[in-house]
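Notebook entry, structure prediction.
Reason for the run: the old model in the group folder had no record of what sequence produced it. Starting over properly, with the input documented here first.
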Amino acid sequence: MSELPLAIGAVDYHTAGEPFRIVSGGLAPLPGRTILEKRRHAMEHLDRVRQLLIFEPRGHADMYGCFVTAPEDEGAQLGVVFFHNAGYSTACGHGTIALVTWALESGVIPMTQGEQTVTVDAPSGRLRCTARCEGARVRDVRFVNVPSYVAHEGLEVPTSRGPVRADVSFGGAFYASVDADPLGLALTGDDLPELIRLGREIKAAIEGAYRIEHPVEPELHDVYGVIFHRTLGEGPELRQRNVTIFADGEVDRSPCGSGTSARLALLDRSGRLPRGARLEHEGITGAVFQGRVVGDGRVAAYEAVITEVTGSAYLTGYHQFVLQPDDPLGTGFLLR
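New structure, fully documented this time:
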């Protein structure tokens, strides 16, 4: 079992209300040539650090964070390994937005005024990000995601409320999309206990019946999240509200960045969102990500789309987390 360092530095941001804890000091660089190799190292050797930063009393069941790493080569400026209450994700759109904001606002990457490109290597692939900088602040970040595609449509999934229809699509991770209206769910805070319960049921049922795996990179597999969505308005721009339940019953406060890409793949396939038109994607806090399809792609035998997602992140605090050797709770606990 790896020993924890005495103290770990972190900087916290939120993106549309969703927390993101960035490890800024106290750890040696993650070894590995690729981000997936670095991710495997973190899983094998740094999981107690993840627990320390995510679990109570230093975090909570809905906390999210990352290890900042070197990129895979000179084609990118940053690498990242994402983590949450159940382990390590392959993609995180809100985290990517927060990471780029932090890197520029902290001076890790020198900031220039106007639009600035920052390229990030994530477990799902390389992400080209564009930050809009004014003064000392990053006003927003848009990222061009890895190719997104539809894996399964019209699955009938058994649940305790009866069968529900789900569509599975990939936006850096796999998401099952479920229309909330037939379930009588308005996607407000009052619905959260039922959404968490249903999200866990749907994820388990799909994974028990189908093989969910990326055709090129087998480490990208399983249903990461369940997106409950409903349409708020249609016109020149499509506005939808969603609540995404991911990992082990974790609730995304933001509209979910990689989930937005997964939704865009489905909306493009159905013809509900014309090319170039924006999806105004609202999360449970009322904050919005903007998404659009900007091109075509391909993932093995799957037709795919290239998507762009835009959002803003805000600094919330600086931390020095300590674990005393005689702390009887160790790296902490989760109350679910």
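Summary: The chain has a mean pLDDT of 96.
The old model has been moved to the deprecated folder.
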